[in-house]
């Protein structure tokens, strides 16, 4: 999965915005103004930081060489995934979905209703 494919996958999700709140090389994806993915555009190879359930985060780090604790983020709740050629795009999409869903589920029920996530 390349950066543009990852970007498109993220922005097509409901209520997602993209911005550069920190600097000109860190692209941040938010849902309801809460981060769920960050990409360092100047880093090679490219990598994405994704929010993750703490137990799952440890398991992914143990199972995949390309998955490490996130740089400059909470090591308990964030992973960095290096986008290597042999990484399965389907798995990366599942991890993006997991990150997105963690953030959405962490919103108040009122906010989830306002944004149309629940009725």
UniProtKB/TrEMBL annotation:
InterPro entries reported in the protein's UniProt record: YjbR, YjbR-like_sf, YjbR/MT2646/Rv2570-like
Organism in which the protein naturally occurs: Wenyingzhuangia heitensis
Statement: the UniProt record of this protein carries the keyword Membrane: no
Keyword Metal-binding: no
Keywords: DNA-binding
PANTHER family tied to this protein: CYTOPLASMIC PROTEIN, CYTOPLASMIC PROTEIN-RELATED
A molecular function (GO) term: DNA binding
Protein name in UniProt: DNA-binding protein (MmcQ/YjbR family)
């Amino acid at each position: 999965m390349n950066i543009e494919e990852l970007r498109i996958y993220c922005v097509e999700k409901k209520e997602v915005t993209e911005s550069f709140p920190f600097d000109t090389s860190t692209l941040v994806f938010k849902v309801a103004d809460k981060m769920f993915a960050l990409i360092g555009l100047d880093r090679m190879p490219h990598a994405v930081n994704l929010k993750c359930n703490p137990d799952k985060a440890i398991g992914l780090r143990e199972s995949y060489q390309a998955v490490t604790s996130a740089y400059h983020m909470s090591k308990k709740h964030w992973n960095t995934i290096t986008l290597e050629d042999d990484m399965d795009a389907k798995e990366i999409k599942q991890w993006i979905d997991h990150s997105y869903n963690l953030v959405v589920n962490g919103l108040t029920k009122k906010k989830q209703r306002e944004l149309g996530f629940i009725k």
